[in-house]
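thought: fold this chain, then report.
action: predict
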Amino acid sequence: MASGTNAFSPGIFIMMKHPEVGKVKMRLAKSLGEKDGTGLYRAFIQDTITKVQSLDVPYRIAVYPPESQEMIIQWLGQVSQVFPQLGMNLGERLQNGFGMMFEKGYQQVIALASDSPDLPNEILMEAVSGLQTHNAVIGPASDGGYYLIGFSRDFFIPEAFEGVSWSTETVFKETMSRIGSRTSQVYVLPEWADIDTNEDLREFYKRNRVQPSRALHTMNYLNSHPKLLQSLLS
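observation:
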């Protein structure tokens, strides 16, 4: 189900940047080159969308910068409804994303990052079910951030996104502190890794090389670039 017809079911929005060369995955690009950094991020996005599509849960794509909407649609086609990320920082953009989804009538909303391409489907399903019985759900990332966060409409906590030290190892702890001051009904998912560095990518390849289907686009990209793969594993 691409965009969904039942507005009162849970909804997911995927946070993504326009995969423009030199503008995404800069830490990877420093060592791999801007072209491969961007190519990998495109694969991350495709794997994330494929994963969400398999849930049969309504979803939308939140794109940044806002003016890239048409380019995203031209690239991905009409896989889902697209809306712009609005705000001066990530916190404001997440706040506004939840607001847009709640305005559409969704009673439970999940925001999902696009740089954990091998996140197991089981964890996503656990997030959806956890939000049916809790006020909030969050998935901690191994670098101290989080790969997923969700709220029930009646218990949305905008403060969870205010004053957070984004892109640091304290993001998850800060966010949990803000949520915990308002509700104890928080479902914490298993920790998972996102991919920001060479070491992250190396570990990703090692855990998926035997069963690449969990992140097929990303694994295909790596396997079709032998020089990149060789430098990564050397």
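thought: worth noting. The chain has a mean pLDDT of 93.
final: tokens above.
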